């Protein structure tokens, strides 16, 4: 079990709640995150990454209850996909409510969601009492970062906080599977 500095965890959750942008360790790489309803923070993340909004972003959560507000009725019917046992982390594409911001879902009628086993992600979602926006901490087309030092040197001036910790040890980002069709979009 990773040691998580509770003072830093509280500070990160407070920043998220106030509409800020943080970097934090995930299963494989450092991620950029914010509250899913913080439109200005989502736009900041897109600007930092230089990522087009049309692609959409991922939500991470510690519990199913944190993602239910974003799913359509069809998405809620597929929520049992999170009970499947996979060797690696899986991000599921699920039908999204139409009122969810296009900055979050992109041009899609589905949203990417991962229930995380990473202790930092779980603790952060629980402390923030919310799912979080999650995308790799890098500019589009550049390599993902695996340490807080890398994030600080390349993106630190654009972030409100970097939660220091170790990533989960996975070599590659999560698989992405469409929950309706079972098509694997990223192995």
Describe the structure in brief.
This protein has 187 residues and is of the alpha/beta class.
Task: List its traits.
6 helices; alpha/beta; globular; 187 residues; 9-stranded mixed β-sheet; 27% helix
Task: Give the SSE map.
Layout: H1 6-17, E1 22-25, E2 30-33, H2 39-49, E3 58-61, H3 73-77, E4 90-95, H4 102-105, E5 110-115, H5 119-128, E6 132-136, H6 148-155, E7 161-162, E8 175-178, E9 184-186
Parallel strand pairs: 1-7, 3-5, 4-8
Antiparallel strand pairs: 1-2, 2-6, 3-6, 4-5, 8-9
Family: Belongs to the SUA5 family. TsaC subfamily.
Domain YrdC-like: 6-187
Main location: cytoplasm
Helix % is 25-40%
Q: Cα distance, first to last residue?
A: 27 Å
Radius of gyration: 15 Å
**Structural class assignment:** alpha/beta
The count of β-strands is 9
Strand content: 15-25%
State the order of secondary-structure elements, H for helix, E for strand: HEEHEHEHEHEHEEE
Shape assignment: globular
Individual helix count: 6
How are the strands of the largest sheet arranged? Answer: 7-1-2-6-3-5-4-8-9
Mean pLDDT: 93
**Which spans have pLDDT < 50 for at least 5 consecutive residues?**
none
Largest sheet: 9 strands, mixed
What does this structure look like?
InterPro entries: DHBP_synth_RibB-like_a/b_dom, Sua5-like_dom, TC-AMP_synthase, TC-AMP_synthase_SUA5. The protein is α/β, with parallel strands linked by helices. It has helices spanning 6-17, 39-49, 73-77, 102-105, 119-128, 148-155, and strands spanning 22-25, 30-33, 58-61, 90-95, 110-115, 132-136, 161-162, 175-178, 184-186. The protein has a nine-stranded mixed sheet. Helix 1 crosses helix 5 (119-128).
């Amino acid at each position: 079990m990773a040691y998580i500095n509770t003072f830093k965890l509280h500070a990160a959750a407070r920043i998220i709640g106030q509409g800020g942008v943080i970097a934090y360790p995930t299963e494989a790489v450092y991620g950029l995150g914010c509250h899913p309803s913080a439109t200005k923070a989502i736009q900041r993340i897109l600007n930092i990454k230089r990522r087009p909004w049309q692609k959409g972003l991922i939500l991470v959560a510690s519990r199913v209850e944190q993602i239910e507000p974003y799913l359509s009725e069809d998405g809620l019917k597929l929520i049992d996909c999170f009970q499947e046992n996979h060797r690696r982390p899986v991000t599921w594409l699920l039908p999204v409510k139409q009122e969810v911001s296009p900055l979050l879902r992109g041009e899609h009628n589905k949203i990417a969601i991962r229930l995380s086993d990473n202790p930092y992600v779980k603790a952060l979602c629980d402390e923030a009492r919310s799912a979080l926006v999650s995308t790799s901490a890098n500019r589009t087309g550049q390599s993902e970062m695996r340490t807080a030092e890398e994030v600080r040197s390349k993106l630190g001036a654009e972030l409100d906080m970097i939660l220091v910790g170790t990533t989960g040890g996975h070599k590659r980002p999560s698989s992405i599977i469409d929950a309706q069709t079972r098509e694997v979009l990223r192995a």
